[in-house]
From TrEMBL:
It comes from Aromia moschata. InterPro entries: NADH_UbQ_OxRdtase_su10, NDUFB10. This is NADH dehydrogenase [ubiquinone] 1 beta subcomplex subunit 10. It is found in: Mitochondrion inner membrane. It is a peripheral membrane protein. The keyword Mitochondrion applies. Keywords: Electron transport, Membrane, Mitochondrion, Mitochondrion inner membrane, Respiratory chain, Transport. The keyword Membrane applies. Belongs to the complex I NDUFB10 subunit family.
Length: 160
């Protein structure tokens, strides 16, 4: 198979494509790539700070950093959930009418992520922080130790 264009029409379209592609390649190579390497805010990677359970009760700075990290993690988890939901909705629209069969794995991933999100962030109210979420996690672990996994009913012989 020859590498170049086969006829004059294909050669014309290759030339038009090169004219349209050249400025884009130039911008990427001359502006975007150099700024990615030198610009500190481009996909900023923040260090992990101690969580709220590792902070002393009188260490306000540590507690503030834990709250900021908690809010950032919540935003990330919410966006991941939104992306999974959008993927499932797109699959449903594209694969209709047999979307239940073809989009089943996406639905399962979305439902699992939604359950995990609700376990961590659900029922906390409008104004919550890392300490409130930590207490929710602690109370859930105590409940599961006493009564079994939440949502499966109580174990036999457990106090009501």
């Amino acid at each position: 198979m020859p590498e170049g264009p086969r006829n004059i029409i294909e050669q014309f379209f290759c030339s038009v494509g090169d004219v349209l592609e050249a400025p884009v390649v130039w911008v990427r190579e001359k502006i975007v790539v150099p700024n990615q390497q030198n610009y500190p805010w481009y996909h900023q990677k923040l260090r992990r700070v101690p969580t709220i359970d590792e902070c002393y009760t009188d260490d306000v700075v540590c507690q503030h950093e834990a709250n900021v990290q908690y809010k950032r993690d919540k935003q990330v988890d919410t966006e991941i959930l939104s992306i999974l939901r959008d993927r499932f909705e797109d699959c449903t629209m594209y694969e209709a009418p047999d979307h239940l069969e073809r989009c089943g794995p996406l639905l399962k991933k979305y439902e699992e992520a939604a359950t995990n999100w609700f376990i961590k962030y659900g029922d906390l109210g409008a104004y919550h922080n890392a300490k409130i979420a930590y207490m929710k996690q602690k109370h859930r672990m105590i409940w599961e130790r006493r009564h079994g996994q939440v949502g499966t009913g109580m174990k036999e012989g457990s106090p009501a």
